[in-house]
Design goal:
The protein has 353 residues and is of the alpha/beta class. The chain contains 14 helices and nine strands.
């Protein structure tokens, strides 16, 4: 009887091995799903990273992206896209309301910061506008805004022999009508101008607008997305970009690339605000990608490489150690105004452009 069963077992075993080989080969050579999305420009390098492209392909996705300012994304025709991926909860909320999107994924987040230069930060410190904390500086926004309200220029600051120019003392931002980073600057400055309270109503918004509007209108031309001002800062130096409002992740990305300039310096405003990067799916495949970007440990390791903080804080801690950089252990973080209130302030400033 054993001799009769043996051939059958051999056949069954061969079929099982063959099926495993077939499944392995099929999975290896299966065509990835093409997923199209529109993203904030600050995330372009992440999605173009060859390592990320290969990893996503191995996970079953080929991701194709177009760039736009985060708030501007809500004004686009999103037909044919599988996901929208702006920066900031207010931008995401604008998309939800304007496009009727229900689901979302908080993929990663980053605090806001001010990119500057060591000689300029020393001038700010001498005038009580910055506090040296070793690897970075802190800026008390109330003191800074008190001087900008007086139309202070760099040449008016004391102990200033290295940058005595007539340039107004301003923080350069993107266009608040199109970009989330400028909206975050508005959230912070309106908080300070409202007596260190989040602006909670249209009436409070109107009250702070006379001091808020010049912070944007005096800047002149503003980019529609955050990558432009940061590249200008990096390429053109202090003369063109003394103080630029950016995402911390942009600065850390440069450190990771080892393409920094020796006199680069990062300032964290006090108070601060976190910007969440929110993926809004427009198809089932977009939702699957959102789940992957939010929770897959391999993917998160690459997201952290671009300076983003994920729901695994240890990954970020390990990453910044490799850069030789020590960010603040804790920041004074505020909430942003409600969607309607922030939109109301942006709408009022838009009329002045």
């Amino acid at each position: 009887m054993n001799k009769a069963i043996a051939p059958i077992l051999t056949v069954v075993l061969a079929l099982g091995v063959g099926f495993l080989i077939y499944s392995s080969v099929k999975d290896r050579f299966a065509q990835p799903v093409v997923v199209r999305g529109v993203i904030g420009s600050e995330k372009e390098a992440l999605f173009k990273d060859p390592e990320m492209v290969a990893l996503l392909r191995r996970k079953g996705f080929t991701v194709q992206t177009d760039n736009a300012g985060s708030r501007q994304i809500a004004t686009l025709d999103l037909k044919g896209y599988d996901f929208a991926f702006p920066a900031g909860v207010p931008a995401a909320e604008k998309l939800r309301r304007d496009k009727g999107i229900k689901k979302s994924f908080d993929v990663f987040f980053t605090p806001m910061a001010i990119a500057s230069w060591t000689p300029l930060v020393k001038i700010l410190e001498a005038n009580g506008l910055a506090v040296n904390k070793g690897a970075y500086s802190l800026m008390p926004l109330d003191k800074f805004l008190a001087l900008t309200a007086k139309n202070t220029r760099w040449s008016d600051l004391k102990s200033n022999s290295s940058f005595a120019v007539k340039k107004p003392l301003l923080i350069n931002t993107t266009d608040p009508r199109r970009s989330n980073s400028a909206a975050m600057f508005m959230a912070l400055t309106s908080y300070v101008l409202n007596g260190d309270n989040v602006v909670q109503s249209a009436a409070q918004g109107q009250k702070v607008l006379p001091e808020l509007e010049p912070l944007f209108l005096k800047q002149g031309f503003q980019e529609s997305s955050s990558q432009g001002p940061f590249e200008n800062y990096f390429l053109l130096g202090a003369g063109a970009a003394p103080l630029v409002f950016i995402y911390e992740s942009q600065y850390l990305e440069k450190l990771a690339e080892k393409k920094t300039r020796a006199d680069m310096r990062l300032i964290y405003p006090q108070p601060n605000v976190f910007t969440k990067h929110v993926l809004l799916p427009l198809s089932d495949n977009g939702a699957k990608l959102g789940e992957l970007l939010s929770n897959d440990p391999e993917v998160q390791k690459l997201e952290v490489k671009y300076g983003y903080r994920t729901n695994n804080p240890q990954l970020f801690t390990d990453f910044v150690k490799t850069l030789g950089y020590s960010p603040p252990d804790q920041l004074e973080v505020i909430e942003t105004p409600r969607y309607e209130v922030l939109e109301g302030m942006i709408g009022s400033i838009e009329k002045k452009y």
